[in-house]
Amino acid sequence: MTKTPDFTQLNYDATDFPAVGFDAWKTQVEKASGKTLDQLVTKTMEHIDVESLYTKDDIAGFPHLGYVAGIPPYFRGPYPSMYVTRPWTVRQYAGFSTAEESNAFYRRNLAAGQMGLSIAFDLATHRGYDSDNERVVGDVGKA
C-alpha cells in the first residue's frame, strides 16, 4: 500500500537556487530571526547542541564517511543496499486484553496495508518470565 514517489518527474532547476556563501546566509538568518547564530543553537533532550547550519567543514576528518554499507567494518550497516529497495516500515505498538482481540487487531491492520507488527506483551513477558512465575505475579497484564 506504499507509494514510491517518482522523483524523476520533479520540475527542478538548480539554477533557481544560486549558491550563497556562509556570510550571506548568516546575515539573512540573523536579519529574519532577530537572533545571532549562537542564540539559534538548540539542545536535544540528551543535551547535545544542534547548530542551525552544518557545512562540510563540520565533518572534515570523519574516517567513516568513506565506508560503504555491507563491507567491513559495517559502520553503514550490514547490507549493501540497506533500505533502498525495502523502505522502512511504520508500525503501531499495540496489544489488547486477550489474545483473540490482539490477533483480530493485527490481522485488520495487516489487511489494511500495515507492513509489520510491533506487539505489546505484558511486563512479565518482556522481562523473560512465564506469566505463572512467582517473581512476576504483580507484573502480569501490565505493559
TrEMBL record:
GO terms for molecular function: cobalamin binding; methylmalonyl-CoA mutase activity. It holds the Pfam family MM_CoA_mutase. Residues 43-143 form the Methylmalonyl-CoA mutase alpha/beta chain catalytic domain. It comes from the Bacteria. One of its GO terms (cellular component) is cytoplasm. SUPFAM superfamilies: Cobalamin (vitamin B12)-dependent enzymes. Coiled coil: none annotated. GO terms for biological process: propionate metabolic process, methylmalonyl pathway. PANTHER family: METHYLMALONYL-COA MUTASE, MITOCHONDRIAL (PTHR48101:SF4), METHYLMALONYL-COA MUTASE, MITOCHONDRIAL-RELATED (PTHR48101). This is Methylmalonyl-CoA mutase.
